[in-house]
Amino acid sequence: xxxxxxxxxxxxxxxxxxxxxxxxxxxSEGGRVLVQYHYGNILDQSAGALERIDERKYGQxxxxxxxxxxx
Length: 71
Known about the structure:
alpha+beta; 1 helix; 42% strand
């Protein structure tokens, strides 16, 4: 939920959180995580065991979908 980190460019907090989710064991292989963020932020293509499979922009919001890949 907003408010987002309103910064243009990479934001490491998202990658750290996604990597922790991917390694925590709460997602089975193929499990998905949706991340909503400010459109100016740049998220990594992969974070730990999660790989981005889709990215969309809606107004000033971005939405990235990550999927847990086989470890």
